[in-house]
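Sorry to interrupt, but I need a hand with the structure work. Can you supply me with one protein entry, sequence and fold together? No commentary is needed, just the two lines. Leave the record below and I will have a look.
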Amino acid sequence: MKVRKYIFINNTILFSTTIFFAHDYHFSLISKQTKMTNSKKTLVIGASENPTRYSYLAVEKLKKYGHSVIALGNKTGMIGDTKIQTEKRQEQNIDTVTLYINPELQKQYADYIMLLHPKRLIFNPGTENDDLYQMAKANGIEPLEACTLVMLGTGQY
């Protein structure tokens, strides 16, 4: 007999466990992680096709977790099947903007981010910026000083 159990946190299935019953003994095997989330359209600012960069890893992991991703960088390129665009396009229904650029470079994106009016703005480590944080807050955007990769891995995204 086989029974499937699911572990939920914030309406996300973190992993499923299959339990096999045989002769009064049971063996528990953790199957591969099943990531099921509500897709959040995400704009990654500072995207790079360099696989050692965190922005690259974020684009890959966001896609792996089922999120729609727009990659914006200073050079065109590809991250898997996601094209890195260089133009600030008027996008609709952006849930999250996640930053991978320093505070000085953020100045040229501040008005663009406010125009997109995402639900939240993530300042990844090294991108913290009090001015943009306060501007986001004043415009009804939830600013978070957090790590996109950690949030995804812990089911908090």
Summary: The radius of gyration is 19 Å. The first helix runs from residue 54 to 64. The chain is about 25% helix and 35% strand.
